[in-house]
Design a protein that fits this description.
Elements lengths: L4 E7 L32 E5 L7 H5 L2 E3 L19 E5 L3 E5 L35 H6 L4 E3 L5 E5 L30 E8 L3 E6 L6 H8 L5 E2 L10 E6 L5 E6 L14 H8 L2 E9 L10 H15 L1 H4 L3 E6 L6 H11 L5 E3 L8 H12 L5
Bound molecules: guanosine-5'-diphosphate and magnesium ion (MG).
The site of guanosine-5'-diphosphate has 16 residues, from α3.
């Protein structure tokens, strides 16, 4: 399963309460205030991680809570701060606000005095209204995370409470006053993975990907505005009949051993996941060397994809049987279709304009969308 958009509900930790305590020893039955401060509540942070390529983790766990700060105690001891909860996301994650307020309505601090257990209860889903996904995605993104290591705090932990030791003054030697810990922020967010294109070309060098993309594109394909990769994906816009269109990406870099990160293998595989349809382009004439055969080429490409990631392997795919203008291609086409009986094989020639109209008609059904 490949997850490219998801809703998450987050609750940062509350701050720990300050303590109202007085020094009591055998020799000092009426000592001054010694209640320590509470600890700060844990923040919730999103961070771009190099080894994460989709949002699947949030599908299984859509609700996260960071640790609370501990209460202060006597002897001026400060409570421990709650740990920051770091959630890993892939480069190209866009964050949208999913609730109308990040702050939540503080629940009245009960009469907890002293060092007793903290009885404040904070319920999830209180104090804000959720926004529908449609409405959320129409709004301005809160963050666009493009670089490995980049971080953003989504929910801030509550402030630390203050113990009564802070309130001693010339006129009040025995203050009972304290400040409770602040409430950690709670909110809903929508996370979305930036798409490269509706379809992505997959094939060995010289299969004819660039030629095909140029032949299909209404305008010259452009380098994608896609800052977080060393690869330079070329994206072309295809105009279909009936005012619909789609985008196709040619991402360089897939070679044998890609799943072992040979060359820029992982870069390629991570990014090809962000295309809805995979178009495997085969040189049907095997012109790129004596031992090349389109069946072997497709098997090798599929193997790289499977070894990298089963989710990627499960994505819809078709075979573009290219270079059908060359004489050797016809016999290979029949063999290829027999080897992959369940997979749609579309014979074309990118350079000689054979089968391109039929390909466009089929692509319109598979990826066509009305332009905005
Ligand atoms: N005969 C023939 N040659 C093609 C066809 N498509 C591409 N080529 C040639 O194959 C070579 C590699 O094409 P290119 O588009 O650069 O492949 P890429 O590396 O996959 O992008 C070039 O010399 C093209 O002219 C085709 O349909 N028929
Ligand atoms: Mg090329």
């Amino acid at each position: 399963m490949f997850v490219d958009h998801i809703k998450v509900q987050l609750k940062a930790g509350n701050g720990g309460n300050g303590s109202a305590s007085f020094r009591r020893t055998k020799t000092d039955a009426k000592g001054g205030p010694d209640g320590g401060d509470g600890g700060k509540g844990g923040d919730i942070v999103l961070q771009v991680d190099q080894h994460t390529d989709n949002l699947k983790a949030f599908f299984y766990q859509p609700l996260y809570k960071a640790d609370e700060g501990k209460c202060g105690t006597s002897n001026r001891k400060t409570g421990k701060s709650g740990k920051t909860l770091v959630m890993k996301v892939p480069a190209g994650t866009i964050v949208y606000r999913g609730s109308n307020a990040v702050e939540i309505v503080p629940i009245e601090a009960p009469d907890w005095g002293g060092e007793g257990p903290d009885e404040r209860k904070v319920k999830m889903s209180s104090g804000y209204e959720e926004i529908s996904e449609e409405e959320a995605l129409a709004g301005e993104p809160l963050a666009d995370l493009t670089e490995v290591g980049q971080k953003v705090v989504l929910c801030k932990g509550g402030d630390a409470g203050k113990g009564n030791v802070n309130f001693k003054s010339a006129t009040n030697q025995a203050p009972k006053e304290t400040i409770p810990g602040g409430i950690g922020e709670e909110a809903v967010f929508y996370l979305e993975l930036r798409k490269i294109a509706d379809a992505g070309l997959v094939g060995f060098p010289n299969a004819g990907k660039s030629t095909l993309l140029r032949a299909l594109s209404a305008a010259t394909p452009k380098v994608a505005a896609y800052p977080f990769t060393t690869l330079k994906p070329m994206v072309g816009v295809v105009d279909f009949k009936g005012f619909s269109r789609g985008t196709i990406a040619d991402i360089p870099g897939l070679i044998e051993g890609a799943h072992k990160n040979v060359g820029l293998g992982h870069e390629f595989l991570r990014h090809i996941m962000r295309c809805r349809l995979l178009m495997f382009v085969a040189d049907m004439a095997g012109t790129d060397g004596d031992d090349r055969h389109p069946i072997i080429d497709i098997q090798m490409l599929r193997k790289e994809i499977k070894l990298y990631n089963e989710d990627l392997a499960a994505q819809p795919w078709i075979i573009i049987a290219n270079k059908m203008d060359l004489p050797e291609s016809q016999a290979n086409l029949e063999a290829l279709q027999q080897r992959f009986p369940k997979i749609e094989v579309i014979p074309i020639s990118g350079s000689e304009d054979i089968g391109l109209d039929a390909l466009k008609t089929r692509l319109r059904e598979l990826i066509g969308q009305r332009p905005e």
